[in-house]
């Protein structure tokens, strides 16, 4: 067991090293510029980075129920939050105070996997009222999401749950522009049923955190350098980095990949930024993966298949394509899984819903045509500056590179890739600077 774990650690480090070495070898930037920029980031303290919009990091106590956690994330308009261990509230050690980070998308996956019980509770009264019999509803196997044991056998009666909502429990209170508002949209009665049925009634964030953890919890101190944060967000694949003040176990800030990209966009006009971003992406070695490595979903495949691929490949999104040439027609993000809980008509037809119908429905329902149904793309000759502008303006995590008149997908650029273009890693920086964080990164 120990040998297997050690082998996994070595593979993760090797993967990170290979990714970063590929980037550095392809950059057509002067060594002087790269070294100067790396030194500059190494001398910028994390404390200088802007605070989260509210000025306060939202935390979720580990004993909070999963459904209440959804409400907190929804009301706070955030996608993830650090989880606090109530048993260590007086501890001055962050490793005892925090158990990890809970992500909205991970919770949504858990809810879908366990919705069979809710469906059984609601089907008798609501499915019939909505004109959909439970026999015709069908079941969606939880095996598709990787569940094992009784769950895998029971499956997910998605249509029954959808029928329950359509049968009168849905409260049309509207949906925020970007926030997941599942608690409001599904309606008070629907949540009341869920909260009175197992496993929803008693399952806490603590109990699902390990199985549904998307990334390790690796904080940095306020006096750490921004270079350490940029390396964690790029080379070491973290989506967000908590910031803890020296001598205090409490998180003071939360730096995400998106926040860094927005910060970079504001550097437009500075010599070093313009020098790098004026290059075409191909001159920076982008994309970093070949076209056959891009994970996609055909427009006529079930949307379930798209989310399953994301989970299996541990990626946050993929393009919706048509035909053998992979003509892109839209985008699907792991965050979009929330719409299966927000939109009763989507949940009701989940078992037969195609990727194309899914992106069309949520785009029209949210007046967000340009972000979901219309592909977010660039050309191989696009500049890095144009890519950064698109990522920041559209508030997305990836942009797809297309070629030819048919817009064939030939690559993808992520926030991680963009950040990697601006930095290098000094010798022994990992061991000398990250210290205790090393084991956390390796244990992912």
UniProtKB/TrEMBL annotation:
Instruction: Return the InterPro entries for the record.
Output: AMPK_gamma/SDS23_families, CBS_dom, CBS_dom_sf
Instruction: Please name the Gene3D superfamilies in this protein's record.
Output: CBS-domain (3.10.580.10)
Q: Which SMART domains match?
A: CBS
Where the record annotates domain CBS, the positions are 51-117, 289-349, 371-430
Any Pfam family hit: CBS
Q: Which residues cross the membrane?
A: none
Which keywords belong to this entry? Answer: CBS domain, Repeat
Q: Which PANTHER family match?
A: AMP-ACTIVATED PROTEIN KINASE, GAMMA REGULATORY SUBUNIT (PTHR13780), SNF1-RELATED PROTEIN KINASE REGULATORY SUBUNIT GAMMA-1-LIKE (PTHR13780:SF47)
Protein name per Swiss-Prot or TrEMBL: CBS domain-containing protein
Organism equals Dorcoceras hygrometricum
């Amino acid at each position: 067991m120990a040998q297997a774990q050690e082998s996994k650690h070595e593979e993760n480090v090797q993967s990170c090293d290979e990714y970063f070495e590929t980037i550095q070898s392809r950059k057509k930037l002067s060594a002087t510029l790269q070294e100067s920029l790396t030194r500059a980031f190494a001398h910028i303290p994390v404390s200088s980075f802007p605070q989260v919009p509210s000025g306060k990091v939202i935390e979720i106590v580990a004993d909070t129920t999963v459904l209440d956690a959804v409400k907190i994330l929804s009301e706070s308009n955030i996608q993830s939050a650090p989880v606090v261990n109530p048993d260590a509230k007086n501890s001055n050690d962050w490793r005892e105070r925090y158990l990890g980070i809970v992500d909205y998308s991970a919770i949504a996956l858990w809810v879908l996997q366990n919705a069979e019980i809710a469906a059984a509770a609601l089907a008798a009264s609501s499915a019939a009222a909505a004109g959909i019999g439970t026999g015709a509803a069908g079941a969606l196997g939880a095996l598709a999401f990787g569940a094992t044991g009784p769950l895998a056998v029971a499956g997910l009666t998605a249509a029954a749950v959808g029928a329950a909502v359509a049968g009168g429990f849905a409260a049309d209170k509207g949906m925020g522009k970007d926030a997941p508002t599942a608690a409001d949209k599904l309606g008070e009665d629907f949540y009341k049923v869920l909260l009175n049925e197992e496993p929803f009634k008693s399952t806490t964030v603590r109990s699902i955190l390990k199985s549904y953890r998307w990334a390790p919890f690796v904080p940095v101190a306020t006096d750490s350098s921004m270079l350490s944060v940029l390396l964690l967000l790029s080379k070491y694949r973290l989506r967000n980095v908590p910031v803890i003040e020296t001598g205090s176990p409490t998180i003071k800030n939360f730096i995400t990949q998106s926040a860094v990209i927005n910060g970079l966009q504001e550097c437009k006009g500075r010599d070093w930024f313009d020098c790098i971003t004026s290059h075409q992406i191909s001159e920076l070695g982008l994309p970093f993966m070949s076209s056959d490595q891009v994970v996609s979903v055909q427009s006529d495949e079930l949307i379930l298949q798209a989310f399953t691929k994301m989970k299996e490949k541990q990626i946050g999104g993929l393009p919706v394509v048509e035909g053998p040439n992979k003509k892109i027609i839209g985008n699907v993000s792991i965050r979009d899984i929330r719409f299966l809980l927000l939109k009763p008509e989507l949940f009701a037809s989940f078992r037969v819903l195609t990727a194309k119908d899914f992106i069309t429905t949520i785009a029209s329902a949210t007046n967000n045509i340009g972000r979901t149904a219309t592909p977010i793309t660039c050309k191989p000759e696009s500049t890095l500056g144009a890519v950064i502008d698109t990522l920041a303006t559209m508030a997305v995590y990836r942009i797809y590179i297309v070629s030819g008149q048919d817009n064939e997908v030939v690559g993808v650029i992520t926030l991680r890739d963009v950040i990697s273009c601006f930095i290098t890693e000094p010798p022994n920086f990992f061991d000398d600077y990250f210290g205790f964080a090393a084991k956390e990164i390796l244990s992912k």
